[in-house]
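[audit] Reproducing an earlier prediction to check determinism. Same input, same settings, fresh worker. If the tokens differ from the archived copy the diff job will pick it up downstream; this log only records the rerun itself.
[audit] input (309 residues):
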Amino acid sequence: MIYSVTLNPSIDFIVRVNDFQLGETNRAFEDNFYSGGKGIMVSKLLKNVGTNCVNLGFLGGFTGAFIEKNLKSLNILSDFIQVNENTRINVKLKTDNETEINCKGPNISENEKNQFFEKISKITNEDFVILSGSVPSSLGNDFYIEIIEILNKNNVKFTLDSSGETFSKSLKYKPFLIKPNKDELKDYAKRDFNSNEEIIDYVRKNLVDKAEHTIISLGGEGALYIAKDFSLFASPLKLKENIVNTVGAGDSVVAGFVDNILKYKDVEKAFRFAVACGTATSFSEDIGEIDLIEEATKKLNIKKEYYGN
């Protein structure tokens, strides 16, 4: 079973406004509520491609009840710890320029935290865990590392979609997959990259031995899969006139790669599918559907390059 951990889920309140005026009363022409949080986006993508996933994390209050009901309506499995405070609401204002307001989330008690660790400790080496998204401040900066240490003791494979110090610390445990974007790689390396060749050279020398698989997201410039002896470059693909959604594309790449590589054990096939999933989501209102994913899979241009020692 694949488990997706969302420590700080949210209701994503999407508001669309024409000609937004700061300081004035603006009227939305459309608004929608979605279950959000990076791990939940992972589980939505997996469901769309026919793979079950259990959501773990913390939910509370009327907002948590909405998320649980919504996931149930989508036939997505969940086993959240119920907390006393409300799950957060994030506001995404879509107008000429997109603006987001992400709230901090609930305080998690010591008892709620221990309940969560009990669930994590029962995951076995036949399972897979995807860790992604922000951490409620009450859990501390090293909460992901505490989870990883439990998984490591149980020989459970995991991927962590995070950045900064948490990303750096996680490398000690050799994640199954790492997927920093270009800016996150820059922060880790403490240097700029002026070309894909510079990125590939740096990652081959400094990162590929620290994880089983490495994908570098280049945003609108495509994506790279980098191994010691070869790299794959996926050119950006335009499925529609304009990108619809910037939320969840990276989560879709992670979910698509993990799902496909576990099923077929083929790196090139998994990378193509992963990028197709991310592309489909970026041209969808919520998360990429299978028809759009399959279209992107067929249309993607992937270039492979080999390297010597």
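[audit] rerun output stored. Observation attached for the diff report: The radius of gyration is 19 Å.
[audit] end
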